[in-house]
Hints:
Elements: H1 19-31, H2 36-50, E1 53-61, E2 67-73, H3 77-83, H4 91-97, E3 103-105, E4 127-134, E5 137-147, H5 171-234, H6 239-267, H7 272-291, E6 295-301, H8 308-329, E7 333-340, E8 346-352, H9 359-364, H10 371-380, E9 384-389, E10 395-401
Parallel strand pairs: 6-7
Antiparallel strand pairs: 1-2, 1-5, 3-4, 4-5, 7-8, 8-10, 9-10
Amino acid sequence: MTGSPPHGGPCAPRGPRSGLAAVSTALLAMSRRLEVRDVLRTIVASARELLDAEYAALGVPDDHGGFAQFVVDGISEEQWRAIGPLPRQHGILAAMLHQDGPERLADVREDPRFEGWPAAHPDMSDFLGLPIRDGEETLGALFLANKRTGTGAGTDGGRGSAGGSTGGFTDEDEELLSLLAQHAAIALTNARLYERSRELTIAEERSRLAHELHDAVSQKLFSLRLTAQAAAALVDRDPARAKEELHQVAALAAEAADELRAAVTELRPAALDEDGLTATLRNQVRVLDRAHAAHVTFACDGVRALPAAQEEAVLRVAQEALHNALRHSDGERIAVTLTRREAGGAVLKVMDDGSGFSPPTVRRAGRHLGLVSMRDRAAGVGGRLTVHSEPGTGTTIELEVPGG
């Protein structure tokens, strides 16, 4: 992994933010981030601002004696590129990774562990650092350098020269940074769990798609092979029947292509993070309306942003229901609506005016039309899926999800 670019660019006087409100703002900023990279940057920027330091950095160790990530604040991108490769774990940085408490120095350059800077590295003097730990695990080393003022932000709104201070940083700075580090450990741990959860979800989704793809497409290909063999056997003695079999070959090939296309669509989920659920659904409906004979519409009423898992479930159920309606219903109109629940969350409806079906009959015949998958998705986010359909009356798929 490489280091993250500097956050905040060249050092410019911003002035300390004082009091409990500043601490609260910093802690809330960390807790709101879900990606590890964003959490790291927020920790560094918050520490630098709260303690009014010229420079701040956070190194995350790897398993090979170096740093997997090194996030800085107060250094321009040009300086960062000129400094060169990420530092190894030595000197003062190593101390931060292998001790429990803070390290405060009047001048880091006079410490016997100091081993010098790269040529483009800014000069630093007074130093304050400590590890970020989760139990016995060291998540990173956080440190600051070059206190900019003699007075700065404190939890009581002001700070003088605290007893026992060395250099520009004070006992109160140590206390404040320790508090920040404790919350940083929680935020980092939560972000790691979130990213791991996403990885597991993606792995489970790929496994499910692999099974569905195998079951659906392999059956079609098997039927295709048998039908082609039958056509070949009939060519000489019954050309008319051979022609019928070849028409069946073409139909089966088209169905197999549809199954593959549906699987590929699921393997390339829409960018919900960038566009949001409403825009994603609207865009997909617009594309389907242009590509198919049926008229497909979308309407949304008052739906706010939902948790990521709920938005994913709504999108996937909508895709499955639309696929079924376009392929099986023979309807002229398909309407997709997304409305806000009074208790919070949303209600998705996919309605068609097609031929409809009998859900019990479909289940007895061993055909599922994706209903099992849709119900699993609904249950996975605490939602409820309802299917309304009868032969000749069209079909409505309704999904209710909490949240938002």
